[in-house]
Specification:
Length: about 475
């Protein structure tokens, strides 16, 4: 029979944890004092330790760290009454075998303990699919859905290593925030974090941007972003837009920790962790021959898929409240809260722009608010006429004609001026959003699809 130690200062809570483990399979011992549990490890080692996360502020992580100092291979499962991104990240970074929301009991704990006692000794686990620093920004990865809890756990595990990471998700889901969370929870946290949007520049310019080049009219060498990120982390957003030669240099860094400067034979050594992101299918690009297979597997040592906001609607209230607090601080405006009607509308909205669109909507609503509580009238996306337009993904000639007719009649009844400009602007916004979706969030490709400049595309998205 396997021996499981449970650390929990609350008798009722400890009983719930004990009852989650079948008595015929496990012998459980309950501890209410962390110091005594640690001292007991000198004389006896259990097979698994279960820690209630809410022992005290930081108590669970401190205890986890102390247990790991005694025996690095001893599996520790952390159970959290209230899940948090930082709690999950810190627990996994310090070596927890798993981090469980209390709502998953009893089956969640029994499953975690069973896996921890598997023949691999608890050192291998399967993650769900697809410090210093600007910690406040990391709040935007908050979420309590199972998918987000798994991402938080994976961030913590990944942060403890130097493995390359590939983050996949639609535009606006927060890929750079995930990259920053990995960096600021790693041993490189006091070193540079350098973010590069590969899709925002011409391939030749990207080569110089990443790997350096000579200053115009000078023989002096300008170091690239990889050299600037030395000892730290470089984040390559829209890595799928990089040319094949640039991909080859990135691969060289991943394989050998060095690269050859563009137009020179000088080789530069760097110690950089690479985190890359894309909103497109790299598998499809490999089949097309536009993305290197060897680079794909070098980048995908750890893969994190961020689900779109429409697939994790239970997180919307928490995100909305988080963005409300940020907006209040940024705009220096006092708003007491969000009405239930707004919460209901936020839950039903499709969020084509994902978390970024939600943040922008809350910021605008706070700026426009006059009542002290956010109401539907404060949100542009809920205003009369906004719902008249079909979703970009479902646009059809018939739907477009109907939407134009409704909008024209509404504006004409109000004796509005410049009806043509208003309707054309709305059509342009819908087209811009559809092009961005089709291009996987790549602004260069979206602008090319529409036959407009990237600045014009940005303007249309901004005005939407």
């Amino acid at each position: 029979m396997k021996d499981v130690w449970i650390l929990d200062r609350n008798a009722e809570s400890a009983a719930e944890l004990t009852e989650a483990l079948p008595r015929l399979m496990y012998e459980t011992s309950v501890w209410t004092d962390a110091d005594r549990l640690i001292a007991a490890l000198d004389e006896k080692r259990p097979d698994v330790v279960v820690i209630e996360h809410c022992l005290s502020e930081g108590g669970a992580v401190d205890t986890l760290r102390a247990v790991k100092e005694f025996d690095r291979r001893l599996p520790v499962v952390v159970v959290a009454a209230t899940t948090s991104s930082q709690g999950a990240i810190e627990s996994m970074r310090e070596g927890a075998y798993d981090y469980l929301p209390r709502g998953t009991l009893p089956s969640g704990l029994e499953d975690a303990v069973r896996r921890a006692l598997s023949p691999d000794g608890g050192m291998i686990r399967t993650i769900g699919s697809p410090g210093p620093g600007d910690v406040a920004e990391l709040g935007a990865i908050v979420g309590r859905t199972p998918e987000m809890v798994e991402i938080h756990k994976l961030i913590g595990q990944t942060a403890a290593t130097d493995a390359a990471v590939l983050i996949q998700g639609e535009s606006g889901t927060g890929k750079e925030l995930i990259a920053r969370a990995i960096h600021y929870n790693s041993d490189r946290r006091n070193r540079p974090f350098v973010a590069v949007n590969c899709g925002a520049m011409h391939p030749e310019a990207l080569d110089a941007e990443l790997f350096g080049g000579r200053r115009p009219g000078s023989s002096e060498w300008e170091p690239g972003r990889f050299e600037q990120a030395n000892e730290g982390t470089i984040f390559l957003d829209e890595v799928d837009t990089a040319s094949l030669p640039v991909q080859g240099r990135i691969l060289s860094v991943l394989e050998n920790g060095q690269f050859e400067r563009p137009g020179a034979r000088t080789r530069v050594k760097v110690n950089v962790r690479v985190v890359a992101a894309t909103g497109r299918s790299l598998v499809a690009q490999m089949k097309e021959g536009t993305f290197r297979v060897d680079l794909f597997y070098r980048l995908k040592v750890v893969s994190i898929f961020i689900p779109p906001l429409r697939d994790r609607r239970d997180d919307i209230p928490y995100l909305a409240e988080y963005f409300l607090e940020r907006a209040k601080s940024k705009l220096q405006k006092d708003v007491d809260g969000i009405s239930q009607q707004v919460f209901d509308l936020l839950a039903d909205y499709p969020w084509p722009g994902n978390v970024r669109e939600l943040e922008r909507s809350i910021l605008r609503a706070v700026a426009l608010n006059r009542t002290g509580v956010l109401v539907p009238e404060d949100f542009e996306i809920f205003r009369e006429g906004a719902e008249s337009w079909p979703d970009a993904a479902e646009l059809s000639p018939e739907g477009l004609e109907s939407a134009v007719s409704r909008s024209f009649r509404r504006l004409a009844d109000r004796d509005e001026d410049r009806i043509d400009d208003a309707i054309v602007s709305e059509v342009e916004r819908v087209l811009a959003e559809e092009a961005m979706r089709h291009a996987g969030g790549n602004q260069v490709r979206a602008a090319r699809l529409l036959g407009i400049s990237r600045n014009t595309l940005r303007k249309r998205l901004r005005e939407g």
